[in-house]
Amino acid sequence: MNKKVQSIKWLYLSVFLLPVLGMAQEKGKEKETNIDEVVLVGYTKVSKKDVTNAVSSVKAEALKDMPVNSAAEAIQGRLAGVQVQTSEGSPGAEVDIKVRGGTSITGSNAPLYIVDGVQMDNAMSLLTPKEIESIEVLKDASSTSIYGSRGANGVVLITTKSGRKRATTTINYNGFTGVRKIMNTLDVLDPYQFVMYQYELYNKNGVADDITAFATRYGTYNELESKYKNVKTRDWQDELFGKEAFNFTHNLTVNGGSEKSAFALTLNHVDEDGIMLKSGFKRSMVNFKYDYDISKKLKFGFNARYSRSLINGVGTSSTGSQSNNRLRNAVRYQPFEGGSNIPVDDFDPSYATNTNLVNPLILNDNEVRDNRSNDLLLNGYINWNITKDITFRSVIGYVQRDIITNQFWGVVTSQARANADMPIVQLDRSQSRRITNTNTLNYTKKFGDHKLDILLGQEIIKTDGESSYTYVKWFPKSILPEEAFANIAAATPPAGLIQDAARTAALPPDRLASFFGRVNYIYANKYILTASVRADGSNVFMKGNQWGYFPAASLAWKIKEEKFLKDVNWLDELKLRVGYGLSGNNRITSYLWANFYNVSANNGYVFGTSVTPGAAISTTQANPNVKWEATVSKNAGIDFEFFNSRLYGSVDGYITDTKDLLVLAKVPFPGYSNQFQNSGKTQNKGLEFTLGGVIVNKEDFTWKTDINLSANKNKILSLGSGVRPGQDSYLVQSGGIGGFDFIAKVGSSVGTYYGYVTEGRYEISDFDYNAATQVYTLKAGVPSSSAIALGAKAVQPGDLKLKDLNGDGQITDADRTELGSAQPKFYGGFNQTFRYKNFDMSLFFNFSVGNKVYNANKIENTTQYLYRDNNMAAEVADRWRWFDNNGVKVNDPTALAALNANTTMWTPPTGQYILHSYGIEDGSFLRLNNVTLGFTLPKGSLDAVGVKNFRLYATVNNVFVITKYSGYDPEASTRRNPLTPGVDYSAYPRSRFFVTGVDITF
């Protein structure tokens, strides 16, 4: 075990476990957990003590101290077996949630979200913590199979807050304001180091034109020290990301009820600046819930939720690919003013062409992106207690999402410069609609020692939508973005050129019909059996393969209720659980079993001054045999409570096998590039551990703590027809800088990096030196990295050296190997909450241990590639040197060795970017995610003015991170492909958030 793992382990023991174990010595006055707490498990609520499945839950009480604008951020690290990862630090950044590691290879690993009984995509990013009553995550197939379709990746059940009947109307306002600041920046060469490096590049080969060009741009060697050691440094990262970004968030809740009704109204408004210039996030939301008892047997309710959001700014990369890397401009642009006859704050077209760089501030002004989304959720229910034992419930829901994205590229951008230096606009529009209807019949009966609960249900889900895409070139050079968005007719093609036509597309309709049932049987309050089955019919698959069947069963034994433990006073609960189930996944586009035509301008014809789209057959080959992906899950767990519920927790172990994976496989057929197939198997094995306790429970002081720890081991068992006969792997491109930099391999985990092993640099001892010609020639038997890393240039002392793994005496593609995985060995979080009289304090940590991060920025910023006049990472200052302190090139082996006796870095390679082990770093971290300090006025203090509760609080989010990772943040992951996680490339830097707020109830 390495030192980092040991240090974190002992930190847990000292901060958490030892105090919890020691608290058994102190007697508490009251029970701190509610034994009758209920959780939502598959269409009905169940007493927590009767749950037989693997379920993690978090209640509103745990989220109240989290002043964040996304529910996903609020639950990060709080649920065992649930990984929550924000891709980067930009406002409104995408959030990935995986339950027990995820099961798919090329498909989405997102869980199924159910909000108040209605399916809603990406719900955790849309809901605010203040409107959530509870979140339950169903993790094993014995609980998820009741949801059949898409249950394979877990199910997240979200219940929003409701009013209370026979309650007075209360008004709560919770508002906070704060400021965000960048946490850290990437170190680069200072101005003097930069010009010394450029001197070497321009002068190394002795080309007269290059030597003159350097002197013209930067000055003679004798001028460099005096000119650049004291020159004004331009810290582009600070200028682009260094502003104080303010946030204003308002939450207003009004709830109450009469004898027969209850209502809750929630209003939310967020105005959040990003730390990057001209970036930000705004959202306005209203949510109204109403419940009414028509009679003692019949009641109904409805929920209406609408939100509008706007994300401003292009960020640091639109796709994370090399061609769209905007972060490069802030890191590699020359770090000082001067060096050209054009001022540094003006656009220099020659410099842009020669360096592939644009002043980051100018570029940021010339790129505009407004991403608007409107989300509507309508749902209603009717509940009829037919008899005291039989209940009918019907829920109908409608979800609609409209996304409007406007993008503008001004004259300095590469897109405009490729189109006669004229601005470009792209307008994207999409709408998706989903209608859901669920009907259930529930029978409950208790007779003697027997308790029976039977659920029968039927559900239909209908999804539709459409989209449009308009790409308009050749706007007047002086046009403003807002003018271009509003008047695309202002674009006029130059003579002889044509405009692309707008494209529209319909979202293939998705239809799902389901029937399900579940039986829950309890005998003598000791033995519990839960069995369920669901049948799903989907139009995603061809007739004959449309129906999938998903059975499940689980058992629980309340050992505490046995006679031999009944009188053990220090034991409050001991329950053993086992479960087995099958769940499914159909998350591919509908009708892929048939050949359809795609409409595209690429297949069109010219008509007038525009292109009329034409149709061509899809490059995805039809597959009439594709069927449901299936996941089999086995789970065993134990729940416990001790010392009058002062110590409580659970342990779960699981094995999840997924077969018939829905994989987008490459096919060798002419005219087609891929095909969806049921190909391959994966497996996840893991352990989950939760522990909580009340360490101190005095009248004036309480101290509570909770911890969760999860370990998951992912493995690919088969790739099926996804590989050629006799092969057990295939390579994957992340789309960044390293070519095929991941591998999908049988026996390895999903997210395995693949590249070369860095062996340092070539030293003088690796060469023969010809004094007459002053030429270094690589010795026989020393493998050459020339073809792979150096652009086929002859190897010289100081060049990057790669390891010859197969021992054939040369560096080729065959020398690539697995370089680690993005999968952590274990991860989790722990929370400490304190109360002293009217003061409260909470500290929340989350952590990950054993995962690797692909620092693609580090590879790029230490590789020269094709361009001079680019700044580099600070470690390049320690590179191999060819020139002495007088600016004279050194060739003599003895003198050259002495010159580099104290340098360790290689010369930045001039070949293509490749992944080598230098870019793979330990991504383990311990983050203090949140510290909150609050003060609540004593009850009754403000009764005279109608204030029931008044609390002031101050919070710091993302306080610090303990990590060896050298990039912006170890949690960055800029790829959406499940096969290529953990890539930090052009990620928007993460910030620290300082907050003050007030919580008032009237």
Automatic annotation (TrEMBL):
The keyword Membrane applies. Its main location: membrane. It is a multi-pass membrane protein. It is found in: Cell outer membrane. Keywords: Cell outer membrane, Membrane, Receptor, Signal, Transmembrane, Transmembrane beta strand, Transport. Pfam families: Plug. PROSITE patterns: TONB_DEPENDENT_REC_3. Belongs to the TonB-dependent receptor family. Residues 1-24 form the signal peptide. The keyword Transmembrane applies. This is TonB-dependent receptor. Residues 48-155 form the TonB-dependent receptor plug domain. It comes from the Bacteria.
